[in-house]
Design goal:
Blueprint lengths: L2 H41 L4 H6 L14 H8 L5 H33 L2 H13 L11 H7 L8 H22 L3 H9 L4 H12 L1 H17 L2 H6 L8 H6 L10 H35 L2
């Protein structure tokens, strides 16, 4: 028997051992990520005293309060919670749709025209992803106020500015892999450029559309700092701001209600992610690697 045949089982054993170690490592890493979310959910079902006494304990007959914390969280505060829900849904959906509409067409135009100005614009979009938010956060509220963007409609334009860099980058990577002959055939058949984009290009971009929409939805829905800085909080509050306002001084915070509202804010985005999880990985790989 040759030496090569003898070393083959050893390599297989080493490969299996490495795979098992990686499985254990990533399993522990997954538990570390899931544990804080599970802890919030557990404490949302317990009384305030039980949370303070034993935050890591499971609810029992003495500490379990059911949906009382959820009802208290919705009822607490001077600002109606249902309005925060409506503003969060509107800002998240409108901003995401605006980002998808503008950046998809922008990426298509950049790659098909491919002029010096287009290449410069793409470079600026790529550079914008590494610019820290802290460099513009001090002047942003004043600029938003002067341009009348300090409302649920205007903040969608601000989100477009901050979200365009990543979206253009992902869309551009996918557009480069698309054969231009498909679009040329559509133009020969009489389609205008907008018709070519919406009827031919956009359906092909579906994997990247799904991945970009999930990333933008998760970011905008959970964002606290930008709405807090830009919006007039006497008139408009999103769910993260409403949760922050449940904080009170001198130990008066209803931690159970706060945990319940955090769970409420997590549920919609988790549901959307589970629905679209099949497309996010393929979309990111297609946008970042192809071409």
């Amino acid at each position: 028997m040759s030496a090569h045949a003898l070393t083959r089982p050893r390599r297989a054993r080493k490969g299996n051992l490495a795979g098992s170690l990686l499985t254990v490592f990533f399993s522990l890493l997954s538990v570390a990520y899931v544990f804080p979310v599970a802890l919030i959910f557990i404490n949302s079902l317990k009384s305030k005293a039980a949370i303070s006494a034993a935050p890591f304990a499971l609810p029992d007959a003495g500490s379990f309060v059911g949906i009382t914390n959820f009802l208290n969280g919705i009822a607490s505060g001077s600002y109606p919670f249902y309005r925060s829900v409506l503003y969060s849904f509107f800002i998240t959906l409108a901003s995401t749709l605006l980002i998808l509409l503008c950046t998809g067409m922008c990426a298509w135009y950049i790659n098909r025209v491919n002029s010096r100005i287009c290449r410069l614009f793409y470079l600026l979009c790529a550079v914008s992803m590494v610019v820290p938010f802290q460099t513009v956060m001090y002047t942003l509220p004043q600029v938003a106020n002067r341009l009348h963007l300090d409302n649920p409609y205007g903040i969608t334009v601000i989100y477009l500015g901050f979200g365009a860099g990543l979206a253009v980058f992902l869309f551009s990577g996918f557009v480069r892999s698309m054969p231009a002959e498909i679009e040329e055939a559509a133009l020969i058949d009489g389609c205008t450029p907008p018709q070519t984009y919406f009827r031919v290009v956009l359906p092909i971009l579906r994997p990247t559309v799904i991945s970009v929409s999930i990333l933008e939805l998760m970011w905008i829905w959970n964002d606290y700092l930008l709405p807090y800085m830009v919006l007039d909080r006497t008139q408009y509050m999103t769910i993260p701001i409403q949760i922050q306002y449940l904080n009170a001084g001198y130990g008066q915070t209803d931690i159970g209600a706060m945990m319940a509202m955090i769970v409420f804010s997590i549920i919609p985005i988790v549901v959307f992610y589970l629905v679209g999880q099949k497309g996010i990985v393929s979309g990111i790989i297609a946008g970042a690697v192809k071409g």
